[in-house]
Specification:
233 residues; two-stranded parallel sheet; mainly alpha
Length: 233
């Protein structure tokens, strides 16, 4: 998603956007804050913070927030491999141990379900847009159109199609490995599949996650948007 938004900004404004991750606000120090203050709009920032911990100024200034969710089973698998394969992070425990920690929310940035429920409460905020990884995989061009409109950018259909073509998982992985992330490209872009959880979850773990989803998100708008029955059962 980072690459998609960078391409949008570049096409809409003509600004040269570096092909790397945006600075994460949870790691800002005084020097970075100063640089951000001096950077012209539009500024592109990232975060994994719980929405209750995002600075109040973001809401006061009506900052546009694009929120990406992925189904919880594939999120767990992706997080597990990212943690184990990233050379700058300590290796995590076994799959079984990591699974248990994820389900209890004892992982960096906390519980998946706590995040989901907190963003669920903000779905009526006109400055918040929630999209799912699965939606983008199904129709990337339409996702680009919707996100473009959300940010108020004006792009032609040709520009939309060009961004979508350059933002497929295969294209982004190739670009990342060759230019922006080097050896980390294969860590950040592993498989990109929907349903890879089936290669990791035991039947018991799958049922346990189903129960957690039903307990926390069944009947919610975000739960419906995640289309859990299609992607996780």
């Amino acid at each position: 998603m980072v690459g998609v938004v960078r391409k949008m900004i570049a096409e809409a404004t003509g600004m040269k956007m570096e092909s790397r991750m945006p600075p994460l606000i949870e790691f800002f120090g005084p020097d970075v804050v100063k640089v951000m203050d001096e950077t012209p709009s539009p500024r592109f920032l990232g975060t994994h913070l719980h929405p209750d911990n995002i600075p109040a100024s973001f809401h006061a200034k009506k900052t546009k927030m694009l929120v990406i969710f992925r189904n919880p089973k594939d999120t767990l698998v992706s997080f597990y491999h990212f943690s184990n394969n990233n050379p700058v992070l300590p290796s995590m425990q076994s799959w079984e141990s990591f699974y248990s920690h994820f389900l209890s929310g004892d992982v960096p940035w906390g519980s998946y379900f706590d995040h989901a429920l907190a963003w669920e409460k903000r779905m009526d905020d006109p400055n918040v847009m929630i999209v799912t990884y699965e939606e983008l995989k199904q129709d990337l061009s339409e996702g680009v159109r919707q996100i473009t409109n959300f940010f108020g950018f004006s792009l032609t259909e040709a520009q939309v199609q060009q961004i979508a073509e350059k933002s497929t998982f295969t294209a982004m992985k190739k670009e990342s490995s060759a230019n922006s992330h080097g050896a980390l490209g294969n860590v950040i872009f592993r498989k990109g599949e929907v349903g890879d959880w089936r290669n990791h979850f035991t039947p018991e773990q799958s049922r346990e996650m189903d129960d957690a989803f039903n307990k926390h998100l069944a009947g919610t708008r975000l739960g419906a948007k995640l289309n859990y029955q299609m992607h996780c059962q």
